[in-house]
What does this fold into?
Amino acid sequence: MKLYYSPGACSLSPHIALIESGLHFELEKVDLKSGKTESGADYASINPKGYVPALLLDSGSLLTEGPTIVQYIADHAPSARIAPKPGAMARYQLTEWLGYINSEIHKAFGPLFDRSSPEEAKAAARKKLDRRFAYVARHLSEHAYLVEDTFSVADGYLFVTLRWAKAIGIDLSAYPSLDAFRERMNQRPAVVSALSEEGIEVI
It folds into this structure.
């Protein structure tokens, strides 16, 4: 397998999942501005969507959406126990968290990453993110992780969004459970390895 990634982007989530899984994989960095991969390939010819992540399977098939990619990884490394078994209620809870993080948190960062966004849009995005993170914080005030009090691929995805929040100065000090979760994730060997491989610092 080969993971196409951009340092610190949402592709960090499947990168963490791959390391946690113990599966063999390769990495190829993508420069999203130039549209070129580290080897000089035209990324659009690999993933016409133009964004990361993309996971090229040994069969030649390509997966291009983070929540799907991390579940594929988990299902192909059942002994790693980074996702509940398919069909279990906890698996549906995992899918629910992945959907929430993807649609309600990840996408809300859009105006904050777009330099052309008006200040009104950025302010609205910050308010929305505060509400969404408050919901997660309530859950994490009673649980160490999102699903069954054990690490899952949903936690890796949440961790990425918390890194973004800290990096751009979103004040989450009202939610100490989020800070505790981020610090807990920063201590995981797979997270340490993924950050090192992408050349990004712990925050």
About this structure: The two ends are 29 Å apart (CA to CA). The mean pLDDT is 97.
